[in-house]
Design goal:
With 487 residues, this protein is α+β, with helices and mostly antiparallel strands. Helix content is 36%, strand content 22%.
Length: 487
Amino acid sequence: MVNGNEKTIAKPNSLCLRFSAATQAKAQQEYRHYSSNTVAWNAYLARLALDTFIPWLQEAIDEPAKPDRDSPKFREFLPGAALECGQTKLVLIPSETSQQPAFFVPQEWVDIPELAADYYLAVQVNLEEEEESCWMEVWGYATHWQLKKYGEYHAAQRAYSISRNALVEDILMMLLARELAGSRKMAIQPLPALTRQRAEELLSYLGNPNLTFPRLAVPFAEWGALLENEEWRSRLYQLRISQSIEEQLSVQERLLGILGAGWQTIEEIFANSIQPDLAYSHRKRRYPSNVLGEQNFNLGKDYDNKDTDDIPQAIPALVELLRTSNDKGARLPAIELLGQIAKGNPIAIAALSEITNTAEERELRRAAAIGLSKIDPGNPRAAVRRGKTIDLGTEFDGNPVALVATLMPEANGETNVQLRAYPTGNESCLPINLQMLVLDETGDIFQEANARSADNWIQLEFTGESGDVCTVKLVLGKAIFSEELII
C-alpha cells in the first residue's frame, strides 16, 4: 500500500505522507472562510490532512472516498475532518504536537449520531521550511466502540481520550477490519429535539464570532441538536463568518476614517516622490544569519533581489524563529520580512496575529500589525499606514516633507497613533528645527519633537480612545501645516 508520496520513518507500521506544494496552496484558499485565525489554522491543518489522505486511501482500497459535504462548516466549530468510503466513516484529528500520551476526540464526533464515525485517526502534522519536510503521520486509530467503552470523558473539554498504547498503529489493520467486521459504532442515543424558538435563541447567541468557544457555551444536548440540523448548522456558520467579515471591515474603515482627505498609500507617496526612497520603507535590508538561520538560500542577501523559489523555504523558518526566540533584534527583522514575502500565507498570518495580541513591546506589535496590513489587509489586527506630502515652500529648498501616520488597533479598543516626518526628493535629512507638534482639543501642546542636524526622521506616538480629538502640526520657520485627527 506504499506509494511515492509516503515518507519512510522509524516505525514501520505507521503511515506517513508528504504534503505537496499544490495541496498546501489549495488548503490556503480556505483560510479566509472562518471566524478567527485560530479556527482557520485548525481548518487549514484538517484540509491538508484530508486532501493528502484521501488519494492514498482510494489507492489502497480501490474504491472512491469522499469528504463529508459539510466538512468546511464543521471545521468552524470543531477540529477534525470527516470522510466516507462506502458505508464506513472516518474522522481525522490532526495536531502539530508530537509524542502525545493520549488521543483526544471532541465529543461531537462521538455522541452526535450524524457525525459519529466508525474509525478515528490520530494524525501528527509537521510543517517545516522544505517541502520534503512537510508531512502527516497517522500514528494510530481507535474505533467508536473503543472510545465509548474504554475512553475517558473530560467534561471541561467535552472530549474523549484514549491512551496512546490502546491505539492500533497499523492502518492496514483498519482496512482489513473494515471489510471483515463492518460497522464499529456503538449504539448512540438520539439527541433531544430543539424547538424552533430555542434554536433561534441559540443562533442569536452563538452566532457572535467574539464568542471564542461556542461548543462549550451551552449544554451539549442543545449544542449537539443545533449542529446536527443542517439548516441551523448552515445558518450558524454564515452568522459567525459574516459578522467576522463585518468586524474586519469596520476596524479598517474606522482607522481610515481617522485620517481626512489627501492621505495616500505609501506606494503612492513613492510614486509621487522625486526620489522614491523614503528612508524607513522600501529600503533594501540585509537579513543576518541569526534571522534566517542556516538555510539553503543566500544569507544576508537583499531579499528584494532573492529568487522567488527561496520564499516557501523562508516562511516556516521565520515563523519558527518568532515562536522560539525572545531576541528583539532577531524577531523584528523576521516580522518585517514576513510582511514582504508572505502575502496570503496562513502560517505567517497566524504568527503575526499572535504577536499583535501577545507581544509586550509595542514596537513588535506595530511591526506585526504593519506586516498583516500587507499580507492580510482585511485582518482586524492589521494596522493602517498612510502618508501625506507637506509642502513647506522655500523653507526647505522646495522639497516636501512626508508625514506618515501608522494607526494600530489595541486589544483594549483604543488606537495607537505613530506619526513620523521624513525628507523626500534629493534630501537625506530633515531641515534643522523642523517641529512636529500634537495638540489636544483645547489647543494645548502635549507632545513635541524637533529635528536636529543629520536627523532623517522625527517621531511622536500616543494612544487615544474613540472620539478623542487632536491636531498635528509641522512647523518650519513661517511655514505651518496643521491637520485635525478625530480618533
